[in-house]
Design goal:
With about 90 residues, the chain is an all-alpha fold. It is built from four helices and no strands.
C-alpha cells in the first residue's frame, strides 16, 4: 500500500502538464483532452491510490485515477447503493 506522498511520487502524470487533467472548453476539445489524460493514466501504476484519494476527498473536477468527474460520481453512487443493500 502507498502513502499519500508515495503514490504521488510514482504517478505518471507527474511529468505531464497539470492542465491536461482539468479539461475546459468546447465539448470536442474537452473530449480530446479527456482521452489524452486517460492515456497517461492507463500507463500509470498508481491509478487506484489516486482514485481512492479523489473519492475520499470528493474531488469535483479533473481526471483522477483514470476517471472523469461524472465517472467518479457514478462510482460513488454504486458504492453507496451496495452499502445500503448489504445492511
Amino acid at each position: 500500500m502507498f502513502g499519500v506522498s508515495d503514490w504521488r511520487e510514482l504517478a505518471a502524470c507527474r511529468r505531464s502538464d497539470p492542465d491536461l487533467f482539468f479539461p475546459l472548453g468546447p465539448a470536442h476539445v474537452s473530449r480530446e483532452q479527456v482521452i489524452a489524460a486517460k492515456a497517461v493514466c492507463a500507463g500509470c501504476r498508481v491509478t487506484q491510490p489516486c482514485l481512492d484519494y479523489a473519492i475520499a476527498r470528493n474531488e469535483d473536477f479533473g481526471i483522477w485515477g483514470g476517471l472523469t468527474e461524472e465517472e467518479r460520481r457514478r462510482l460513488r453512487k454504486r458504492r453507496g447503493e451496495r452499502g445500503r443493500l448489504a445492511v
